Amino acid sequence: MLARRIIPCLDTDGERVVKGVQFVNLRDAGDPAALAARYNREGADELVVLDITASRDHRTTFVQTIRRVAAELAIPLTAGGGISTVDQGRAVLRAGADKLTVNTAALRRPELLTELAAEFGSQAVVLAIDAKRADGHWEAFVRGGRDSTGQDALAWAREGVARGAGEILLTSMDRDGTRKGFDLPLTAAISRAVTVPVIASGGADSPSDFLDVFVEGCADAALAASIFHDAVQGLGELKRFLASRGVPIRLV
Amino acid sequence: MVCRWVPVKITLVEYDAGNLPSVERALARQDVQTVRAATPDAIEAAEALILPGVGHFGQLMRTLGARGLTAPLRQAISRGKPLLGICLGLQALFSASDEAPGDPGLGLFAGRVTALPATAKLPHMGWNQLRRVRESVLFEGVPAGAYFYFAHTYAALDAGEATVAICDHAAPFVAALAQDNLFAVQFHPEKSGDVGARVLANFVARAVSGESVKAERTTGKGTS
Protein backbone atom coordinates (compact mmCIF):
# COMPACT_ATOMS: atom_id res chain seq x y z
CA MET A 1 0.00 0.00 0.00
CA LEU A 2 1.33 3.40 -0.99
CA ALA A 3 2.13 5.31 2.21
CA ARG A 4 0.70 8.75 2.93
CA ARG A 5 3.58 11.21 3.00
CA ILE A 6 4.56 13.78 5.62
CA ILE A 7 6.50 16.64 4.04
CA PRO A 8 8.25 19.43 5.93
CA CYS A 9 8.52 22.63 3.90
CA LEU A 10 11.35 25.15 4.03
CA ASP A 11 10.16 28.58 2.91
CA THR A 12 13.31 30.54 2.16
CA ASP A 13 14.30 34.00 1.00
CA GLY A 14 16.67 32.15 -1.30
CA GLU A 15 19.25 31.62 1.39
CA ARG A 16 17.69 31.42 4.88
CA VAL A 17 14.50 29.76 6.10
CA VAL A 18 11.86 32.38 6.85
CA LYS A 19 8.38 32.16 8.25
CA GLY A 20 5.34 34.36 8.30
CA VAL A 21 1.58 34.27 8.69
CA GLN A 22 -0.46 34.25 5.49
CA PHE A 23 2.62 35.09 3.42
CA VAL A 24 3.49 38.30 5.34
CA ASN A 25 5.60 39.34 8.39
CA LEU A 26 8.56 37.13 7.49
CA ARG A 27 11.16 36.31 10.11
CA ASP A 28 14.31 34.19 10.11
CA ALA A 29 13.88 30.55 11.12
CA GLY A 30 17.25 29.00 10.43
CA ASP A 31 19.68 27.41 8.00
CA PRO A 32 17.98 25.26 5.32
CA ALA A 33 20.74 22.63 5.16
CA ALA A 34 20.71 22.15 8.94
CA LEU A 35 16.92 21.76 8.99
CA ALA A 36 17.07 19.40 6.00
CA ALA A 37 19.56 17.17 7.80
CA ARG A 38 17.30 17.08 10.85
CA TYR A 39 14.16 16.17 8.88
CA ASN A 40 16.02 13.53 6.88
CA ARG A 41 17.10 11.94 10.17
CA GLU A 42 13.69 12.21 11.82
CA GLY A 43 11.81 10.38 9.07
CA ALA A 44 10.43 13.01 6.69
CA ASP A 45 9.13 11.31 3.53
CA GLU A 46 10.16 14.17 1.28
CA LEU A 47 11.29 17.78 1.61
CA VAL A 48 10.04 20.90 -0.16
CA VAL A 49 12.22 24.00 -0.36
CA LEU A 50 10.75 27.18 -1.80
CA ASP A 51 12.14 30.59 -2.61
CA ILE A 52 9.12 32.61 -1.56
CA THR A 53 10.69 35.90 -2.57
CA ALA A 54 11.35 34.41 -6.05
CA SER A 55 13.34 37.44 -7.03
CA ARG A 56 15.76 37.45 -9.93
CA ASP A 57 18.76 38.55 -7.91
CA HIS A 58 18.35 35.59 -5.57
CA ARG A 59 18.27 32.93 -8.29
CA THR A 60 21.95 31.92 -8.11
CA THR A 61 21.81 31.92 -4.33
CA PHE A 62 18.72 29.70 -4.38
CA VAL A 63 20.36 27.15 -6.68
CA GLN A 64 23.28 27.03 -4.24
CA THR A 65 20.81 26.54 -1.40
CA ILE A 66 19.21 23.59 -3.26
CA ARG A 67 22.66 22.07 -3.69
CA ARG A 68 23.42 22.43 0.02
CA VAL A 69 20.03 20.98 1.00
CA ALA A 70 20.26 18.05 -1.46
CA ALA A 71 23.63 17.09 -0.03
CA GLU A 72 21.93 16.39 3.31
CA LEU A 73 19.11 14.22 1.94
CA ALA A 74 18.51 10.53 1.24
CA ILE A 75 14.86 11.32 0.48
CA PRO A 76 13.22 13.16 -2.45
CA LEU A 77 13.55 16.94 -2.74
CA THR A 78 11.09 19.29 -4.42
CA ALA A 79 12.16 22.88 -5.10
CA GLY A 80 10.57 25.94 -6.61
CA GLY A 81 9.80 29.62 -6.54
CA GLY A 82 9.90 31.86 -9.56
CA ILE A 83 10.60 29.12 -12.13
CA SER A 84 9.31 30.36 -15.48
CA THR A 85 11.47 28.60 -18.10
CA VAL A 86 12.73 25.12 -18.91
CA ASP A 87 16.31 26.35 -18.38
CA GLN A 88 15.51 27.56 -14.86
CA GLY A 89 13.85 24.21 -14.17
CA ARG A 90 16.93 22.39 -15.39
CA ALA A 91 19.17 24.45 -13.10
CA VAL A 92 17.00 23.47 -10.12
CA LEU A 93 16.99 19.76 -11.02
CA ARG A 94 20.73 19.75 -11.78
CA ALA A 95 21.36 21.25 -8.36
CA GLY A 96 19.82 18.13 -6.84
CA ALA A 97 16.03 18.57 -6.76
CA ASP A 98 13.93 15.62 -7.96
CA LYS A 99 10.86 17.68 -8.72
CA LEU A 100 10.14 21.33 -9.31
CA THR A 101 7.10 23.38 -8.44
CA VAL A 102 5.63 26.08 -10.63
CA ASN A 103 2.81 28.46 -9.82
CA THR A 104 2.63 32.04 -11.10
CA ALA A 105 4.47 31.40 -14.38
CA ALA A 106 2.22 28.42 -15.20
CA LEU A 107 -0.94 30.45 -14.66
CA ARG A 108 0.41 33.19 -16.92
CA ARG A 109 1.55 30.70 -19.56
CA PRO A 110 0.07 27.20 -19.05
CA GLU A 111 2.21 25.79 -21.91
CA LEU A 112 5.12 25.93 -19.45
CA LEU A 113 3.72 22.78 -17.76
CA THR A 114 3.75 20.90 -21.07
CA GLU A 115 7.28 22.06 -21.85
CA LEU A 116 8.58 21.03 -18.43
CA ALA A 117 6.82 17.63 -18.59
CA ALA A 118 8.19 16.96 -22.08
CA GLU A 119 11.70 17.78 -20.92
CA PHE A 120 11.79 16.22 -17.43
CA GLY A 121 8.73 13.92 -17.24
CA SER A 122 5.44 14.57 -15.45
CA GLN A 123 6.78 12.95 -12.28
CA ALA A 124 9.13 15.93 -11.92
CA VAL A 125 6.51 18.66 -12.43
CA VAL A 126 4.50 19.81 -9.42
CA LEU A 127 1.81 22.42 -9.95
CA ALA A 128 1.53 24.63 -6.86
CA ILE A 129 -1.92 26.15 -6.42
CA ASP A 130 -2.61 28.82 -3.80
CA ALA A 131 -6.39 28.69 -3.38
CA LYS A 132 -8.68 31.06 -1.51
CA ARG A 133 -12.41 30.80 -0.96
CA ALA A 134 -14.43 33.39 -2.93
CA ASP A 135 -18.16 33.45 -3.71
CA GLY A 136 -18.88 29.78 -3.24
CA HIS A 137 -15.79 28.48 -5.02
CA TRP A 138 -12.01 28.56 -4.68
CA GLU A 139 -9.91 30.92 -6.68
CA ALA A 140 -6.24 30.46 -7.65
CA PHE A 141 -3.91 33.22 -6.44
CA VAL A 142 -0.41 34.08 -7.69
CA ARG A 143 2.71 35.98 -6.60
CA GLY A 144 2.87 34.36 -3.19
CA GLY A 145 -0.83 34.85 -2.58
CA ARG A 146 -0.86 38.57 -3.37
CA ASP A 147 -2.74 38.64 -6.67
CA SER A 148 -6.11 37.18 -7.55
CA THR A 149 -6.42 35.60 -10.99
CA GLY A 150 -10.16 35.04 -11.21
CA GLN A 151 -9.28 31.47 -12.23
CA ASP A 152 -11.28 28.67 -10.55
CA ALA A 153 -8.86 26.48 -8.57
CA LEU A 154 -10.58 23.18 -9.50
CA ALA A 155 -10.67 24.00 -13.19
CA TRP A 156 -7.03 25.10 -13.05
CA ALA A 157 -6.00 21.88 -11.29
CA ARG A 158 -7.69 19.81 -14.01
CA GLU A 159 -6.13 21.88 -16.78
CA GLY A 160 -2.70 21.73 -15.13
CA VAL A 161 -2.81 17.94 -14.98
CA ALA A 162 -4.02 17.72 -18.57
CA ARG A 163 -1.04 19.88 -19.56
CA GLY A 164 1.48 17.66 -17.82
CA ALA A 165 1.66 18.31 -14.07
CA GLY A 166 2.30 15.05 -12.20
CA GLU A 167 1.34 16.29 -8.75
CA ILE A 168 -0.55 19.17 -7.13
CA LEU A 169 0.79 21.12 -4.15
CA LEU A 170 -2.37 22.70 -2.82
CA THR A 171 -2.14 25.55 -0.30
CA SER A 172 -5.20 26.97 1.38
CA MET A 173 -4.65 30.73 1.64
CA ASP A 174 -7.47 30.88 4.17
CA ARG A 175 -5.71 28.44 6.50
CA ASP A 176 -2.02 29.10 5.83
CA GLY A 177 -0.24 30.03 9.05
CA THR A 178 -3.43 29.97 11.13
CA ARG A 179 -2.96 26.54 12.76
CA LYS A 180 -6.71 25.93 12.42
CA GLY A 181 -6.26 22.65 10.56
CA PHE A 182 -6.15 21.88 6.84
CA ASP A 183 -8.98 23.03 4.56
CA LEU A 184 -10.70 19.66 4.23
CA PRO A 185 -13.46 20.54 1.71
CA LEU A 186 -10.91 22.25 -0.58
CA THR A 187 -8.46 19.34 -0.36
CA ALA A 188 -11.16 16.74 -0.98
CA ALA A 189 -12.56 18.70 -3.92
CA ILE A 190 -9.17 19.02 -5.64
CA SER A 191 -8.22 15.44 -4.82
CA ARG A 192 -11.41 14.18 -6.46
CA ALA A 193 -10.98 16.51 -9.44
CA VAL A 194 -7.59 15.19 -10.53
CA THR A 195 -5.94 11.82 -11.21
CA VAL A 196 -2.52 12.77 -9.78
CA PRO A 197 -1.36 12.85 -6.14
CA VAL A 198 -2.34 15.91 -4.08
CA ILE A 199 -0.17 17.42 -1.32
CA ALA A 200 -2.28 19.37 1.19
CA SER A 201 -0.78 22.48 2.76
CA GLY A 202 -1.81 25.31 5.06
CA GLY A 203 -3.14 25.27 8.61
CA ALA A 204 -1.55 22.18 10.15
CA ASP A 205 -1.37 22.20 13.91
CA SER A 206 -2.12 18.90 15.65
CA PRO A 207 -1.68 15.22 14.70
CA SER A 208 -5.46 14.95 14.34
CA ASP A 209 -5.33 17.65 11.61
CA PHE A 210 -3.10 15.31 9.60
CA LEU A 211 -5.41 12.36 10.25
CA ASP A 212 -8.36 14.45 9.04
CA VAL A 213 -6.66 15.60 5.84
CA PHE A 214 -5.79 12.00 4.91
CA VAL A 215 -9.21 10.56 5.78
CA GLU A 216 -11.66 13.38 5.00
CA GLY A 217 -9.46 15.42 2.65
CA CYS A 218 -8.35 12.37 0.61
CA ALA A 219 -4.84 13.88 0.51
CA ASP A 220 -1.92 11.77 -0.67
CA ALA A 221 0.58 13.83 1.29
CA ALA A 222 0.48 16.60 3.90
CA LEU A 223 2.90 19.49 4.16
CA ALA A 224 3.71 21.81 7.05
CA ALA A 225 6.45 24.22 7.97
CA SER A 226 6.49 26.09 11.25
CA ILE A 227 5.12 23.35 13.53
CA PHE A 228 8.06 21.18 12.49
CA HIS A 229 10.68 23.98 12.57
CA ASP A 230 9.69 24.98 16.08
CA ALA A 231 9.58 21.33 17.18
CA VAL A 232 5.97 21.92 18.26
CA GLN A 233 5.32 18.66 16.46
CA GLY A 234 7.89 15.84 16.28
CA LEU A 235 7.87 13.97 12.97
CA GLY A 236 8.33 10.52 14.52
CA GLU A 237 5.59 11.08 17.06
CA LEU A 238 3.21 12.34 14.35
CA LYS A 239 3.90 9.35 12.12
CA ARG A 240 3.44 6.86 14.96
CA PHE A 241 0.09 8.49 15.81
CA LEU A 242 -1.11 8.23 12.19
CA ALA A 243 0.05 4.61 11.93
CA SER A 244 -1.84 3.80 15.13
CA ARG A 245 -4.99 5.17 13.48
CA GLY A 246 -4.61 2.90 10.49
CA VAL A 247 -3.08 5.39 8.03
CA PRO A 248 -0.46 3.67 5.83
CA ILE A 249 2.75 5.37 6.99
CA ARG A 250 6.44 4.68 6.59
CA LEU A 251 7.97 4.44 10.05
CA VAL A 252 11.75 4.73 10.33
CA MET B 1 45.85 -6.80 10.63
CA VAL B 2 42.91 -5.64 8.63
CA CYS B 3 42.31 -7.08 5.20
CA ARG B 4 40.56 -4.74 2.77
CA TRP B 5 39.49 -5.44 -0.76
CA VAL B 6 40.59 -3.24 -3.59
CA PRO B 7 37.74 -0.76 -3.96
CA VAL B 8 35.76 -1.03 -7.15
CA LYS B 9 34.98 2.17 -8.96
CA ILE B 10 31.34 2.29 -10.03
CA THR B 11 30.72 3.76 -13.48
CA LEU B 12 27.55 5.81 -13.85
CA VAL B 13 26.15 5.96 -17.36
CA GLU B 14 25.65 9.64 -18.16
CA TYR B 15 22.80 10.89 -20.26
CA ASP B 16 21.05 14.23 -19.95
CA ALA B 17 17.91 13.58 -17.94
CA GLY B 18 19.40 11.33 -15.26
CA ASN B 19 19.19 11.37 -11.48
CA LEU B 20 22.91 10.85 -11.66
CA PRO B 21 24.02 13.45 -9.05
CA SER B 22 21.72 11.88 -6.44
CA VAL B 23 23.17 8.43 -7.10
CA GLU B 24 26.69 9.90 -6.92
CA ARG B 25 25.92 11.50 -3.57
CA ALA B 26 24.33 8.32 -2.19
CA LEU B 27 27.44 6.31 -3.13
CA ALA B 28 29.82 9.01 -1.89
CA ARG B 29 28.15 8.73 1.54
CA GLN B 30 29.28 5.11 1.56
CA ASP B 31 32.81 6.07 0.45
CA VAL B 32 32.24 4.37 -2.89
CA GLN B 33 34.15 5.95 -5.77
CA THR B 34 32.22 6.76 -8.91
CA VAL B 35 33.04 7.98 -12.38
CA ARG B 36 30.70 9.26 -15.08
CA ALA B 37 30.70 7.59 -18.49
CA ALA B 38 29.38 9.21 -21.65
CA THR B 39 31.58 7.49 -24.26
CA PRO B 40 31.90 3.90 -25.55
CA ASP B 41 35.49 3.73 -24.23
CA ALA B 42 34.39 4.71 -20.76
CA ILE B 43 31.74 1.98 -20.74
CA GLU B 44 34.29 -0.57 -21.93
CA ALA B 45 36.70 0.44 -19.19
CA ALA B 46 34.06 0.08 -16.49
CA GLU B 47 34.28 -2.57 -13.76
CA ALA B 48 30.68 -2.17 -12.67
CA LEU B 49 27.91 0.00 -14.07
CA ILE B 50 24.87 1.86 -12.86
CA LEU B 51 22.28 3.04 -15.37
CA PRO B 52 20.36 5.73 -13.48
CA GLY B 53 17.06 6.97 -14.76
CA VAL B 54 14.60 9.78 -14.57
CA GLY B 55 12.84 11.03 -17.63
CA HIS B 56 11.45 9.67 -20.87
CA PHE B 57 12.12 6.18 -22.28
CA GLY B 58 12.50 7.46 -25.86
CA GLN B 59 14.86 10.24 -24.82
CA LEU B 60 17.03 7.79 -22.87
CA MET B 61 17.27 5.28 -25.72
CA ARG B 62 17.93 7.99 -28.31
CA THR B 63 20.65 9.58 -26.16
CA LEU B 64 22.33 6.21 -25.60
CA GLY B 65 22.14 5.62 -29.35
CA ALA B 66 23.47 9.05 -30.29
CA ARG B 67 26.45 8.60 -27.95
CA GLY B 68 27.14 5.13 -29.28
CA LEU B 69 26.58 3.55 -25.89
CA THR B 70 23.92 0.95 -26.73
CA ALA B 71 26.25 -1.74 -28.11
CA PRO B 72 28.98 -1.21 -25.46
CA LEU B 73 26.34 -1.53 -22.73
CA ARG B 74 25.05 -4.81 -24.16
CA GLN B 75 28.64 -6.05 -24.48
CA ALA B 76 29.51 -5.10 -20.92
CA ILE B 77 26.50 -7.04 -19.67
CA SER B 78 27.23 -10.10 -21.80
CA ARG B 79 30.83 -10.08 -20.53
CA GLY B 80 29.52 -10.39 -16.99
CA LYS B 81 30.11 -6.89 -15.69
CA PRO B 82 27.66 -6.13 -12.86
CA LEU B 83 25.03 -3.56 -13.84
CA LEU B 84 22.31 -1.96 -11.76
CA GLY B 85 19.44 -0.23 -13.56
CA ILE B 86 17.44 2.30 -11.59
CA CYS B 87 13.83 3.30 -12.44
CA LEU B 88 13.98 4.14 -16.17
CA GLY B 89 17.24 2.19 -16.11
CA LEU B 90 15.19 -0.92 -15.31
CA GLN B 91 12.71 -0.19 -18.07
CA ALA B 92 15.55 0.29 -20.61
CA LEU B 93 16.52 -3.38 -20.17
CA PHE B 94 13.27 -4.49 -21.80
CA SER B 95 12.59 -4.73 -25.51
CA ALA B 96 10.23 -1.76 -25.80
CA SER B 97 8.00 0.69 -23.93
CA ASP B 98 4.56 2.08 -24.67
CA GLU B 99 5.99 5.44 -23.61
CA ALA B 100 7.99 5.51 -26.87
CA PRO B 101 6.81 2.74 -29.21
CA GLY B 102 9.29 3.74 -31.95
CA ASP B 103 12.40 3.45 -29.76
CA PRO B 104 13.59 -0.09 -28.99
CA GLY B 105 15.05 -0.82 -25.55
CA LEU B 106 18.21 -2.81 -24.82
CA GLY B 107 16.19 -6.00 -25.25
CA LEU B 108 17.77 -8.04 -22.45
CA PHE B 109 14.27 -8.98 -21.34
CA ALA B 110 11.59 -9.83 -23.83
CA GLY B 111 8.70 -8.00 -22.18
CA ARG B 112 7.24 -4.65 -22.98
CA VAL B 113 7.03 -1.74 -20.52
CA THR B 114 3.46 -0.45 -20.22
CA ALA B 115 1.60 2.32 -18.40
CA LEU B 116 0.11 1.28 -15.06
CA PRO B 117 -3.72 1.11 -15.23
CA ALA B 118 -5.43 4.43 -14.48
CA THR B 119 -7.46 2.85 -11.69
CA ALA B 120 -5.09 4.40 -9.12
CA LYS B 121 -3.49 7.84 -8.96
CA LEU B 122 -0.64 8.21 -11.41
CA PRO B 123 2.27 8.80 -11.37
CA HIS B 124 2.85 6.12 -8.71
CA MET B 125 4.58 8.63 -6.47
CA GLY B 126 5.78 7.98 -2.97
CA TRP B 127 6.82 5.22 -0.59
CA ASN B 128 5.59 1.68 -1.12
CA GLN B 129 6.31 -1.80 0.19
CA LEU B 130 7.52 -4.79 -1.82
CA ARG B 131 6.54 -8.43 -2.01
CA ARG B 132 9.70 -10.44 -2.42
CA VAL B 133 9.24 -13.52 -4.54
CA ARG B 134 12.73 -14.91 -4.08
CA GLU B 135 16.00 -14.25 -2.28
CA SER B 136 18.50 -11.86 -3.81
CA VAL B 137 21.72 -10.25 -2.62
CA LEU B 138 20.04 -6.91 -3.37
CA PHE B 139 17.81 -7.17 -0.29
CA GLU B 140 20.26 -8.70 2.16
CA GLY B 141 19.72 -7.07 5.54
CA VAL B 142 16.61 -5.18 4.39
CA PRO B 143 13.57 -5.72 6.65
CA ALA B 144 10.59 -7.38 4.97
CA GLY B 145 8.12 -4.47 5.34
CA ALA B 146 10.57 -1.76 4.28
CA TYR B 147 9.25 1.14 2.19
CA PHE B 148 11.01 2.33 -0.98
CA TYR B 149 10.48 5.55 -2.95
CA PHE B 150 8.84 5.28 -6.38
CA ALA B 151 8.11 7.98 -8.98
CA HIS B 152 6.90 6.51 -12.27
CA THR B 153 3.89 5.92 -14.52
CA TYR B 154 5.26 3.12 -16.70
CA ALA B 155 6.35 -0.28 -15.40
CA ALA B 156 7.42 -3.77 -16.45
CA LEU B 157 4.67 -6.17 -15.49
CA ASP B 158 6.71 -9.35 -15.93
CA ALA B 159 10.38 -10.32 -15.88
CA GLY B 160 9.82 -14.07 -15.61
CA GLU B 161 12.29 -15.93 -13.41
CA ALA B 162 14.41 -12.81 -12.99
CA THR B 163 11.73 -11.16 -10.84
CA VAL B 164 12.94 -10.65 -7.29
CA ALA B 165 10.27 -8.35 -5.88
CA ILE B 166 6.82 -7.19 -6.89
CA CYS B 167 5.08 -3.95 -5.94
CA ASP B 168 1.39 -3.30 -6.34
CA HIS B 169 -0.14 -0.02 -7.49
CA ALA B 170 -3.21 -0.48 -9.71
CA ALA B 171 -1.45 -3.63 -10.96
CA PRO B 172 1.40 -5.83 -9.74
CA PHE B 173 4.66 -4.84 -11.41
CA VAL B 174 8.36 -5.69 -11.27
CA ALA B 175 9.97 -3.72 -8.44
CA ALA B 176 13.31 -5.53 -8.57
CA LEU B 177 14.94 -8.09 -10.82
CA ALA B 178 18.20 -9.99 -10.87
CA GLN B 179 19.65 -12.32 -13.47
CA ASP B 180 23.30 -13.28 -13.40
CA ASN B 181 25.27 -10.00 -13.34
CA LEU B 182 22.20 -7.93 -14.18
CA PHE B 183 20.25 -6.12 -11.44
CA ALA B 184 17.52 -3.51 -11.63
CA VAL B 185 15.04 -1.74 -9.38
CA GLN B 186 12.00 0.33 -10.30
CA PHE B 187 12.26 2.35 -7.08
CA HIS B 188 14.94 4.95 -6.33
CA PRO B 189 17.41 3.46 -3.83
CA GLU B 190 19.27 6.79 -3.79
CA LYS B 191 16.09 8.44 -2.44
CA SER B 192 14.91 5.61 -0.17
CA GLY B 193 16.70 6.50 3.06
CA ASP B 194 18.63 3.82 4.97
CA VAL B 195 17.05 0.81 3.23
CA GLY B 196 17.82 2.31 -0.18
CA ALA B 197 21.42 2.88 0.90
CA ARG B 198 21.55 -0.78 1.89
CA VAL B 199 20.37 -1.91 -1.56
CA LEU B 200 23.11 0.20 -3.19
CA ALA B 201 25.67 -1.18 -0.74
CA ASN B 202 24.54 -4.73 -1.55
CA PHE B 203 25.03 -4.10 -5.25
CA VAL B 204 28.48 -2.60 -4.65
CA ALA B 205 29.45 -5.53 -2.42
CA ARG B 206 28.34 -7.93 -5.14
CA ALA B 207 30.36 -5.94 -7.71
CA VAL B 208 33.42 -6.02 -5.46
CA SER B 209 33.25 -9.74 -4.68
CA GLY B 210 32.86 -10.59 -8.36
CA GLU B 211 31.18 -13.69 -7.03
CA SER B 212 29.87 -16.06 -9.61
CA VAL B 213 26.37 -15.23 -10.44
CA LYS B 214 25.24 -18.76 -10.23
CA ALA B 215 24.58 -17.98 -6.58
CA GLU B 216 22.01 -15.47 -7.72
CA ARG B 217 20.31 -18.06 -9.86
CA THR B 218 20.29 -21.00 -7.54
CA THR B 219 19.00 -19.21 -4.45
CA GLY B 220 15.71 -20.49 -3.14
CA LYS B 221 12.32 -19.29 -4.15
CA GLY B 222 9.17 -18.80 -2.22
CA THR B 223 9.94 -16.26 0.45
CA SER B 224 6.74 -14.40 -0.35
Structure at a glance:
Chain A is of the alpha/beta class and 252 residues long. Chain A contains ten helices and twelve strands. With 224 residues, chain B is α/β, with parallel strands linked by helices.
Structure description:
The complex is a heterodimer of chains A (252) and B (224). Chain A is α/β, with parallel strands linked by helices and 252 residues long. Chain A has one domain: TIM Barrel (Alpha-Beta Barrel). Helix content of chain A is 36%, strand content 27%. In chain A, the strands form two sheets. Chain A has an eight-stranded parallel beta barrel, surrounded by seven helices. A two-stranded antiparallel sheet of chain A has the order 2-3. The longest helix of chain A is centred in the N-terminal third of the chain and has 12 residues. Chain B contains seven helices and 13 strands. At the A-B interface, helix 5 of A face helix 1, strand 7, strand 9 and helix 6 of B.
Element layout with pairings:
The complex is a heterodimer of chains A (252) and B (224).
Chain A: E1 5-12, E2 17-21, E3 24-30, H1 32-42, E4 47-51, H2 59-70, E5 77-80, H3 86-94, E6 99-102, H4 104-108, H5 111-120, E7 125-134, E8 137-142, E9 147-152, H6 153-163, E10 167-172, H7 184-193, E11 198-201, H8 207-215, E12 221-224, H9 226-229, H10 235-244
Parallel strand pairs in A: 1-4, 1-12, 4-5, 5-6, 6-7, 7-10, 10-11, 11-12
Antiparallel strand pairs in A: 2-3, 7-8, 8-9
Helix pairs in contact in A: 1-2, 8-10
Chain B: E1 10-13, H1 20-28, E2 34-37, H2 40-44, E3 48-51, H3 57-66, H4 70-78, E4 83-86, H5 88-91, E5 94-97, E6 109-115, E7 124-129, E8 131-132, E9 147-152, E10 154-156, E11 163-169, E12 171-179, E13 182-185, H6 193-209, H7 214-218
Parallel strand pairs in B: 1-2, 1-3, 3-4, 4-13, 5-6
Antiparallel strand pairs in B: 6-10, 7-9, 8-11, 11-12, 12-13
Please describe the biggest sheet of chain A, giving its number of strands, its sense, and whether it closes into a barrel: 8 strands, parallel, barrel
Beta-strand content bin of chain B: 25-35%
CATH class of chain A: Alpha Beta
- CATH level-two architecture of chain B: 3-Layer(aba) Sandwich
State the CATH superfamily name of chain B: Class I glutamine amidotransferase (GATase) domain
Radius of gyration of chain A: 16 Å
Overall tally of structural domains of chain A: 1
CATH topology of chain A: TIM Barrel
Q: Radius of gyration of chain B, Cα only, in angstroms?
A: 16 Å
Summarize the amount of helix of chain B as a percent range. Answer: 25-40%
The average pLDDT value of chain B, as a whole number, equals 90
Mean pLDDT of chain A equals 92
* Major protein interface: A-B, 32 and 35 residues
SS-derived structural category of chain B: alpha/beta
CATH first level of chain B: Alpha Beta
Structural class of chain A: alpha/beta
- Largest beta-sheet characterization of chain B: 8 strands, mixed
CATH superfamily of chain A: Aldolase class I
